[in-house]
Structures are given as structure tokens and as C-alpha cells.
């Protein structure tokens, strides 16, 4: 996979496809048109039952200026009725553009993406909370999306269709949002309650913005406890979002206790992969996150 495509997969919510012939734009996974990514609203089970390949393009799904998906989908998913069929132009290939932080669309390139993300990092105090050398890239990127409130939560879906009856898959009490998922939902609140004790971040409420502000104000450096705090936050956000999506698309569920264990085990694996300077604090962290945490020490 070349560099551009590798980056595109990670940041596709900011990559906008302008439809030409429709032959290089994924019907399910790319962002195109003025609507939600279709793969987020059409369950895989529907596509599987209709024998629709995961790699279909926009052009593959259009015939005689009409969509080829079943009419039953439109009844079950009202948002599909509002999805306009693009006018294909066989003489014009699809264009890939990058949506900058100011909303401007520009030509997609690795340089454009890097400069835009780097500039955003210079303007916010949570930059070092998100981006650090010991972090897992996919965890850091999802945390970045969550802080920017760019995850496809239900409150954003309802902007397209206010009549949708959506409930948080974790607590079933209201529709989800960034502030609800992190960490005002009864489920995620319990997960975070356990984890924030481990990183000594007990003070304050669970409002998402306040959590980020408080943790950004704490030391964000190469000290082992600072690294662990950042790992725990990013890993927690990543797995809560993953659990939420698993319940939507596969109906698989984990209790909050089970999810805490998954997160803790994941953090332990991350700790095993980093190199540190030997110190009493490092030894204390190894004991706290044991058994099995044995750091790699610098020579």
C-alpha cells in the first residue's frame, strides 16, 4: 500500500471524494456527497444478505440513474431516501480532496495533510496529550477525532434526519454524543471511574471538555507516569468507541468490567514495547501494572 492510500484509510473522515465517473470512490467507506458515510448507517448484515461486496464503488451501485439497493433498505433506513444519486461523468475521474481545519477543500496530498494537522497541533494545549512517540497511532488518531468532535456519533446523524429514533448502544438511555460517550454514559462512566483511579486523575467531573482540559494541564512529557496517563486515556477512548460500534454492527457485548480488563491488558502490552530509564518510579509503575510488566531499559 502506498503512502497516500495508507494515510487515506486512517483519515478518511477528512478526505472528501468529488464524484466524476464514480469508479474509484467506495460506496460504503468513502466520504462523498452531503451525507453520512454509508458504511456507518447500512449494517454489514444488510449488505451480506443482499450479496453486496464490501468493495463496491459508487458507479457499481447506480443503474439508469437509480440506486441498486433494495427498497426495503430505504424503509428501514430513512436516510437512504435522502441520498441523491450523483450524475456520473464517464470522461471525468473522481477527485480526492482534503477538508482543512477551516473547512476549505483543497487537493489531497501527504504534504497538505501533514501541514494541516501539524498546524492544528501548534494551536491547542492538548497536542502533547494526543501525539507522543510511545503512543499507538490508531489510538492517538481516534482520540484526536474525539477531541475535535468528529466521530460519527448519533447526535450528528440526527442532523441529517431528526426523525431517527436512536439510542446509545451502551446504556440505552438517550442518543449518544461525544460528551455522552466520554464519559457521562452509565457504562463508560464506570469504565473511566476505574481507570482514572489508576492514573490518579480522580478530581473533577466527567464532562469531555473538562476531562481533556484537566489532563492537558497535567505534565505531558516522557516521565513514565505521564506516558501511562496518556496511554490510558487514548486506549480507553479507542475501546469505548470500538465497543459502541461492535454493539451496532455485530450485537456483541462486553460488560464494563470486561472492557476495563481489555483496556488494562492493552496498556500493559504497550508498556512492554517502550524503552525507559531505570528508576524507582519506573519500578513502582511496573508493580502497579503487573504481573508481567517488565520494561526494556536504555543502556
From TrEMBL:
<dbReference type="Pfam" id="PF13966">
    <property type="entry name" value="zf-RVT"/>
</dbReference>
<keyword id="KW-0808">Transferase</keyword>
<keyword id="KW-0695">RNA-directed DNA polymerase</keyword>
<dbReference type="GO" id="GO:0003964">
    <property type="term" value="F:RNA-directed DNA polymerase activity"/>
</dbReference>
<feature type="domain" description="Reverse transcriptase zinc-binding">
    <location>
        <begin position="108"/>
        <end position="192"/>
    </location>
</feature>
<keyword id="KW-0548">Nucleotidyltransferase</keyword>
<protein>
    <submittedName>
        <fullName>Reverse transcriptase zinc-binding domain-containing protein</fullName>
    </submittedName>
</protein>
<dbReference type="InterPro" id="IPR026960">
    <property type="entry name" value="RVT-Znf"/>
</dbReference>
Amino acid at each position: 500500500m502506498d503512502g497516500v492510500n495508507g494515510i487515506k484509510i486512517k483519515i478518511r473522515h477528512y478526505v472528501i471524494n468529488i464524484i466524476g465517473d464514480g469508479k474509484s470512490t467506495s460506496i460504503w467507506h468513502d466520504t462523498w456527497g452531503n451525507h453520512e458515510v454509508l458504511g456507518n448507517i447500512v449494517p454489514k448484515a444488510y449488505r451480506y444478505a443482499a450479496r453486496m461486496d464490501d468493495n463496491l464503488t459508487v458507479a457499481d451501485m447506480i443503474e439508469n440513474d437509480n440506486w441498486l439497493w433494495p427498497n426495503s433498505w430505504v424503509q428501514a433506513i430513512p436516510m437512504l431516501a435522502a441520498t441523491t444519486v450523483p450524475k456520473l461523468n464517464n470522461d471525468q475521474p473522481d477527485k480526492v480532496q482534503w477538508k482543512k481545519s477551516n473547512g476549505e477543500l483543497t487537493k489531497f496530498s501527504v504534504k497538505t495533510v501533514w501541514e494541516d494537522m501539524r498546524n492544528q497541533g501548534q494551536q491547542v494545549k492538548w497536542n502533547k496529550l494526543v501525539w507522543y512517540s510511545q503512543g499507538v497511532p490508531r489510538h492517538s488518531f481516534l482520540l484526536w477525532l474525539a477531541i475535535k468532535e468528529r466521530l460519527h456519533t448519533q447526535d450528528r446523524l440526527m442532523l441529517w434526519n431528526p426523525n431517527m429514533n436512536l439510542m446509545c448502544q451502551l446504556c440505552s438511555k438517550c442518543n449518544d454524543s461525544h460528551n455522552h460517550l466520554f464519559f457521562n454514559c452509565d457504562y463508560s462512566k464506570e469504565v473511566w471511574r476505574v481507570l482514572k483511579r489508576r492514573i490518579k486523575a480522580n478530581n473533577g467531573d466527567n464532562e469531555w471538555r473538562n476531562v481533556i482540559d484537566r489532563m492537558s494541564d497535567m505534565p505531558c512529557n516522557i516521565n513514565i507516569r505521564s506516558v501511562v496517563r496518556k496511554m490510558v486515556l487514548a486506549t480507553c477512548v479507542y475501546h469505548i468507541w470500538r465497543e459502541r460500534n461492535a454493539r451496532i454492527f455485530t450485537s456483541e457485548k462486553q460488560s464494563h468490567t470486561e472492557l476495563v480488563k481489555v483496556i488494562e491488558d492493552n496498556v500493559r502490552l504497550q508498556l512492554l514495547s517502550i524503552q525507559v530509564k531505570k528508576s524507582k518510579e519506573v519500578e513502582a509503575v511496573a508493580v502497579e501494572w503487573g504481573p508481567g510488566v517488565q520494561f526494556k531499559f536504555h543502556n
